[in-house]
Amino acid sequence: SKKSRLSTIKLFNYCYSIMSTTMNSRTVVDKTTESYYISYRRNLLAVGVMWAIFVVCLAIINVVVVAQPQWIGDTSSSPGVGFFGLIRYCQLYQTGTNLVCDGRLDDFSTILNDAFRAATVMSGLAALLALTTIVLMILFFFVRTPEWVFRICGTVLAVTCLFSLLGCVIYPSGWDHAKVRSVCGSNADKFNPGSCGIRWAFILAILSIFDSLVLAILAFVLGSRFAKLRPLATGTPGAGPMNGDKHSRPQSEVNSAYADDLYHNPATTPRVATLGPANFGDDFTDISFNTAAKSTRSKNFQL
Which domains does the chain have, with CATH numbers? Predict the structure, then answer.
């Protein structure tokens, strides 16, 4: 009957409105998720680049600290003239002559005492590990999960921090050597530089402790952040924005209503044109039914 047909059309109109609203909401969710992912990943990459630059600076600092004999040295009140490092030391034996330096890395017997040798080993290992971290960063170009590279680098930097700390703690225990006392005075003793002063290489060594500690913590933080980002990027194995598909993104991360539809891929999902809700008035409906009735009668067909 005409009344039942009107009811059917109104029901269809209502269902179509709900479907249109759902499709519009889903489109908004897709755009929000993509915008969030792009911004979040860009920020992580920027922080990661800065982290890599500071790791390179840390390696340079550690190498300079080991090579330079400027850990402690004479002051205006010192009885002698000279300065000391981990390996090398320089001393003025006679006024009017040049400084005489000694100490070689290939001959540990030329290093003044056991404390200086142990500090050299600790600081040398710290420099070697810092350089190893730079080599490990090459793995970023070959892996799909950078969080593991960050965690490995963070572990290496934590060990670097430990070795740097041990080197700085052990080194002052060798200040009781006779050559140190000849420059710094007879009151120079273990952990007491006497009349000598702390120089820039020792200060850099102390700064490298905190530098490596902060970089190690930052590496672990970046690793955890990239681990949280990976589900957004790799909806299916080998796919995702980090692997070349910039359109793949999950709905469940934004709205639990799409928990069963975790990843929306436009390459496989057909595009649906979203229209506004249909609004069929009663006049339009009556005209449609009257026209249809005349057409059926003209064809001698009864519905």
Answer: 2-71+113-173+196-234 (1.20.140)
